């Protein structure tokens, strides 16, 4: 049936559609590799020490107020945040692979519920850490930017759940992808400033200004690219789809540089 549809289309239209699909798949493969590298780092740097030595091991990490003696609730919030982050960052890409979704629909549904609930819990823990515990990097501008992402995660999670329950799977897919982008904003932020350091010979310049920008760009830029992809996929003509495909390839190259720089310049050195 698919072959019939493609054969009935003009050659340029079919080529543009295939180019957009291939560019999206390339982006996803590179992103998945980077997310799994980040997950490995979270497990090795945070979770294994917590399992071995308890929450007190957070005192030996780069987190500000990772562990505060006597602050049982705060320390638990940080620990929960770390464990759940590994769960959603590492497992999220699996929800987007059609072969897994189609072959194991029950697993897809149940992990989807776990993913959405976990994402909300992470956001609530993160908001507590920022505004109640004071255990976050940056200034108020950056805290507001990060908090907006937390609110978006809760909103997108609710909409993804609602559309799934209504069996509106087209809308559910879009809200799930928006949730995926918002959940991984912390990863995009790291890629952003490591890419900036890479192209500037290791210099971050004015770090306060850079992080003021990245605190919002970490989710606004991925979400904007996603919306443009939706438009190109559903309403874009031949030129629009080719342009979007080229844009995705360029974004993927930037992302790959960020992943390389973050892995070799930040994550692996902390594990050595």
UniProtKB/TrEMBL annotation:
Keywords: Membrane, Transmembrane, Transmembrane helix. Pfam families: DUF2306. It comes from the Bacteria. The keyword Transmembrane helix applies. The chain crosses the membrane at residues 26-52, 72-94, 114-132, 144-163, 175-193, 213-230, 242-262. InterPro entries: DUF2306_membrane. This is Putative membrane protein DUF2306.
């Amino acid at each position: 049936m698919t072959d019939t549809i493609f054969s009935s289309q003009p050659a340029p239209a079919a080529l543009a559609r295939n180019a957009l699909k291939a560019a999206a798949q390339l982006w996803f493969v590179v992103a998945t590799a980077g997310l799994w590298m980040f997950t490995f780092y979270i497990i090795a740097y945070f979770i294994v020490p917590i399992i071995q030595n308890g929450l007190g091991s957070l005192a030996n990490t780069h987190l500000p107020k990772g562990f505060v003696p006597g602050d049982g609730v705060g320390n638990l919030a940080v620990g929960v945040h770390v464990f759940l982050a590994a769960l959603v960052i590492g497992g999220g890409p699996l929800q987007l692979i059609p072969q897994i979704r189609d072959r194991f629909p029950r697993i897809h549904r149940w992990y989807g519920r776990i993913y959405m609930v976990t994402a909300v819990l992470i956001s609530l823990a993160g908001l507590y850490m920022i505004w109640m515990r004071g255990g976050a990097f940056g200034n108020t501008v950056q805290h507001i930017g990060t908090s907006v992402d937390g609110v978006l995660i809760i909103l997108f999670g609710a909409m993804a759940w609602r559309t799934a329950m209504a069996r509106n799977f087209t809308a559910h897919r879009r809200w799930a992808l928006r949730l995926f982008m918002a959940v991984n904003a912390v990863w995009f932020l790291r890629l952003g400033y490591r890419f900036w350091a890479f192209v500037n010979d290791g210099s971050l310049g004015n770090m306060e200004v850079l992080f003021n920008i990245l605190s919002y760009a970490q989710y606004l830029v991925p979400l904007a690219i996603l919306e443009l992809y939706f438009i190109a996929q559903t309403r874009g003509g031949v030129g629009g789809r080719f342009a979007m495909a080229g844009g995705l390839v360029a974004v993927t190259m930037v992302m790959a540089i960020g992943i390389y720089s973050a892995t070799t310049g930040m994550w692996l050195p902390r594990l050595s």
